[in-house]
Amino acid sequence: MVEEKIICIGCPLGCETTLKIDDQGEVVKIIGYKCKEGQQYVLEEYRSPVRVFTATVLTENSSRSLLPVRTNRPILKTKLMEAARALVSTRAKPPVRVGQIILANLLNTGTNVVATDDLFD
Amino acid sequence: MNFSEIDVAIIGSGPAGMAAAIKAKEEGAEHVLILERQEQLGGLLHQCVHNGFGLFYFGQDLTGPEYAHRFAEKVRDLGIEVLLETMVTQISPDRKLTAVNSREGPLHLLPKSIVLAMGCRERSRGQLNVPGTRPAGIFTAGTAQRFVNVEGLIPGKRVVILGSGDIGMIMARRLTLEGAEVRAVVEILPYVGGLTRNEVQCLHDFHTPLLLEHTVTEIHGEQRVEAVSIAKVDKDKRPINGTEQMIACDTLLLSVGLIPENELSRMAGVELDPLTGGPIVDQFRETNVSGIFAGGNVVHVHDLVDDVSWEAEIAGASAAQFARKEKLEKRRRIILKPGRNIRCVVPQAVSAQNDVILYARVKDMEENVQLKVGDIFAQSLRVVKPGEMLKVNLSHSQLSQLKEDIVEQIIECERRRYDG
Q1: What is the pTM assigned to this prediction?
Q2: How confident is the model over B66-116, as pLDDT tens digits?
Q3: At which of B236, B254, B272 does a domain end?
Q4: Smallest Cβ distance to A12: which of B64, B150, B196?
Q5: Are residues B287 and B142 in the same domain?
């Protein structure tokens, strides 16, 4: 049996919860949450913690140095550093419109990196 | 553009300015003009490349640039006039406005009403009095954010962040992802200054050390920052002898609070609230100067952009009404005063004619409190934190309970008592 601590971010309360996890990795008990939504959140945060990844990529042939980007859906938080590295060699060339794919299938996750701003010359 | 026929002039085009302009136009103001000192609409949103914007306003999790883009498109579609790279240098109490740019030179405008939407700026080292040398490598978190997210420059490789405001925590994550090592986030209070969401997703996710009840006591380095000394503090926030330690670093970021930017407001004779640093406003977001309105972070610093835009919409709508020479319904004026554990409240006065939303910030974190407005409103809250603004919805019927001779109401946090 191991314990894992997760802070709920559902509301300003920020409950500090403790999950008791058995040898198979299954959650057997959660202590410290104060509402149903919180219980659900920490369970999901334990099983598969995901985040929207945001960053910038270098541009070519533009007066702006950078184009801001994001993933079109959340990715596993364990992949964030890898995702940042994957964008190092990516370049955006104008014209780019908001929502346009800048890097498809990031790290074979099926997630696309899309522009969050227009880019013109 | 005919500068002599401006109905509503808006100073600034961030999430407040654009929202105010759109609302003013929608409420029937014909000539709405935005004056923006930068080369594009959007203000600070362009450097906020992270998500978390618009969750409430749009019901979607947007990044700063996306949030700006949506408003900018609407500004264009509605035919709102925009002057970019134009600096407003003066506003007089009779609403004479002076601006300057390199195309038209000095401009003298006389809009029928004005919305102040200049936002806020960061507290810097000068306001903290951190002892030590004056080397290169000390930045506010927002300056570093501009370097990293707009200019494409990394301010340093080994970073210490003083203060745990939202921008500081967001920059901790951003710098980590860009390959820098964030050696510590140092916070003088026993809890982080920003949102819990940012503590979890910007610090915990990357195992960034967070030192609560600590502060930077000295900066070291001749040409460039070489290290900072930190120490634990006592309950009066004074460094405790013998707890000092050195952290080697080449960069110190400051994330120690924001100040509403009100130089223009002062020139116009707008009265400021020392508690918020922004204009004293009523529920219409009108200042003490007739026809000058204010909304967003220029009034008080918000946690969420959604609230900035909503507040500015009130100012925009009121400014449009004023420009049409319609009277704003102000039959009485009830002053709202901060009481126990309340740092500030906005608006500072209401007229009891309509429903109104009050925004308040507490001084200290406290559990199990009753948030009260006089005897007309009470709400139990499990916890209140300075980093998370309180919102109070007061209905017209609650306000109309107040007897005619009442001119003041106190908003306060009362300790909740238990029966059992």
Answers
A1: 0.93
A2: 999 999 999 999 999 999 999 999 999 999 999 999 999 999 999 999 999
A3: B254
A4: B196
A5: no
